[in-house]
């Protein structure tokens, strides 16, 4: 009965397939309505962080709030379609206007920026 030769102990192990990097996307949004002076930036940062998104949020001089949301596409969609249109309790959102943006480093976290 023939036996197979043992594997060469000096050869390196076969490379393991690397997990695919999760899909990432980024969207810049401008939120209009009564969104300044009502805690919208803090609420946005907290909500985005809870969803694992990176990016930033800031007030704009025209009274709107601008944010960059970067991360899992389904989490961004949830933020844009379900969460931002409602906002914190004291806010009254009249529009959420998204536009494409370049993703940011996911380890950057989420920050509140100064008014633009």
UniProtKB/TrEMBL annotation:
Name by which UniProt lists this protein: acylphosphatase
Pfam families linked to this entry: Acylphosphatase (PF00708)
UniProt KW Hydrolase keyword: yes
Gene3D superfamilies the UniProt entry points to: 3.30.70.100
Location of the active site: 41, 59
Domain Acylphosphatase-like: 26-114
Entry's EC annotation: 3.6.1.7
Highest taxon in the source lineage: Eukaryota
Residue stretches of biased makeup (Low complexity): 1-11
Keyword annotations: Hydrolase
UniProt source species: Dichanthelium oligosanthes
InterPro entries: Acylphosphatase, Acylphosphatase-like_dom, Acylphosphatase-like_dom_sf, Acylphosphatase_CS
Reaction catalysis annotation: an acyl phosphate + H2O = a carboxylate + phosphate + H(+)
